[in-house]
Amino acid sequence: MPTIFDIELVFSLIPKLLKYLPVTLELTVISMIAGLLLGLLLAIIKMKKIPVLYQISVVFISFIRGTPILVQLYLCYAGIPLLLKYYNYYHETSYNVNSIPAVFYVLITLSLNEAAYNSEVIRAALLSVDKGQTEAAQSLGMTYGQVLRRIILPEAFIVALPTLGNSLIGLMKGTSLAFVCSVVEITAQSRILAGNNLRFFESYVAVALIYWAMTILIERAIVFLEKRLDIDFKSMRKRKGDVILD
Amino acid sequence: MIEIRGLTKSFHPHTILNHIDLTIRTGEIVAVIGSSGAGKSTLLRSINLLEIPDKGTIKIGEVKVDIVKRTKAETLELRKRTAMVFQQFNLFRQKTALENVMEGLIIVKKIPKEDARKIAMLQLEKVGLIHRIHHYPKQLSGGQQQRVAIARALAMQPQLLLFDEPTSALDPELAGEVLDTIKKTAEEGNTMLLVSHEMSFVRKIATRVLVLDQGAIVEDGAREEVFSNPKSERTKQLLANYYRDRDPEFAI
Ligand SMILES: Nc1ncnc2c1ncn2[C@@H]1O[C@H](COP(=O)(O)OP(=O)(O)O)[C@@H](O)[C@H]1O
Ligand SMILES: [Mg+2]
């Protein structure tokens, strides 16, 4: 009887897939950072109701939430070269569409997507910081930027951490879409390997195990971070480092 | 010297402060009394622009700001010259007592971290909390939190200290330690504008008493003068409770 499911193959495929894990991680980390920064910007625009930008951000967020990410990726892939052509035409430049690496489209799509979803989480977290702290900081003579950076963000971060952790996991799994733009990360590589040896199931099991393990790792990291940020824990550590006994 | 002229603030449609003129000399301890809703908090908040008045001018030291024409830099400058102690303490929750006091020194005054730490330790020692420097606000009692807030305000060396009912949120047993701290602050020659319902405390530390009623100053005089010989009806009403509690024979 032929081997129906070759479990050994699964384990020998995992190292081959892991070679492409850096690509997956790179897509995840860059998109997350860009998504957080842009999400913060959108959150502030919405909170401060900045004219024009406010309307634009409302439409943008609604659009992102209302369309599949795969379609957004197609739009980027087809739309950005178009924009470049327009730019070349009106500025008499000759930038080459082909010089844009495929990974760029993936990063743009994932970042924009992440920003739209994160902005609501960030906005809620920013609003959860009580006004008293903000006023105390302002009354010391801090600028809005300083209040935001020093007082509001550190507290809002703790509030948003669990939700942002979930969003990071979603994003990590979402990078599997990159194969649409022929960026080879672990999912794309699993298809390539499967195509070579025609053991599709084993290949997909191997890649699934990697995603699963990564997800568990991120979950653990978030829990660890939450513990480190706990006030009683922080206070204990600081007291240990000091000679003053309590 | 602090000079406030024509300070007006309304929360539509009510006028909360109506053309307030007030001069405070350096070293004066000015108590503001008045019933709830009289505009006491609004007055203090308007002085350091947490509330933006409709018009008026505020002069602290050599900085004079016309509210209507104020710039961002002037707003910050006024805030640097004043420091506020809030009813609800308003400490930074993610910072220890020490970090709370250091924050303004480092970020606003740009004092190097090590020096800021020394100043903060000194201030915390003065309010009796040297053994609590690494505690976070939620690990401190209300009275301790308010003393940290006072240390935070004092560390900035403001030309005017604003206290908005600093003990109203505290149990009577805890209010005492905060009142003692404020008294010490007053004795050190700080200029203070203090809103308080603790009449006996006001009588102990204030050099001057203002009575605010419906957005106007209805009484303004030296402490003893106001307490023993109030001119306005409003002041008499406000003091009636104080005298009744203090000396039952006065009440009929
Ligand atoms: N942000 C605000 N919006 C609208 N009305 C306000 C606001 N803050 C204060 N007020 C009103 O202004 C009046 C004076 O308030 P406040 O200065 O807090 O009084 P006090 O501190 O003397 O009790 C009150 O009638 C209050 O309802
Ligand atoms: Mg008040």
Automatic annotation (TrEMBL), chain A:
Any one GO CC term of the record: ATP-binding cassette (ABC) transporter complex
Residues in ABC transmembrane type-1 domain copies: 21-222
An example Gene Ontology molecular-function term: transmembrane transporter activity
Keyword line: Amino-acid transport, Cell membrane, Membrane, Transmembrane, Transmembrane helix, Transport
GO biological process: amino acid transport
Domain of life: Bacteria
Transmembrane segments: 20-45, 52-75, 95-113, 204-225
SUPFAM superfamilies with a match to the protein in the record: MetI-like
Membrane topology qualifier: Multi-pass membrane protein
Gene3D superfamilies: MetI-like
Cellular localization per UniProt: Cell membrane
InterPro entries associated with the record: AA_ABC_transptr_permease_3TM, ArtM/GltK/GlnP/TcyL/YhdX-like, MetI-like, MetI-like_sf
Cited Pfam families: BPD_transp_1 (PF00528)
Membership in a protein family: Belongs to the binding-protein-dependent transport system permease family.
Name under which the protein is recorded: Amino acid ABC transporter permease
Organism in which the protein naturally occurs: Paenibacillus roseus
TrEMBL record, chain B:
The protein's name in its UniProt record: Amino acid ABC transporter ATP-binding protein
Keywords recorded for this protein, A-Z: ATP-binding, Cell membrane, Membrane, Nucleotide-binding, Transport
UniProt-listed Gene3D superfamilies: P-loop containing nucleotide triphosphate hydrolases
Residue span, ABC transporter domain: 2-239
GO molecular function, one term: ABC-type amino acid transporter activity
One GO cellular component term noted in the UniProt record for this chain: plasma membrane
Major localization class: membrane
The UniProt record lists the keyword ATP-binding: yes
Localization of this protein: Cell membrane
UniProt key word Cell membrane: yes
InterPro entries: AAA+_ATPase (IPR003593), ABC_ATPase_HisP-typ (IPR030679), ABC_transporter-like_ATP-bd (IPR003439), ABC_transporter-like_CS (IPR017871), MetN_ABC_transporter-like (IPR050086), P-loop_NTPase (IPR027417)
Lineage of the species this protein comes from: Bacteria, Bacillati, Bacillota, Bacilli, Bacillales
Entry membrane topology: Peripheral membrane protein
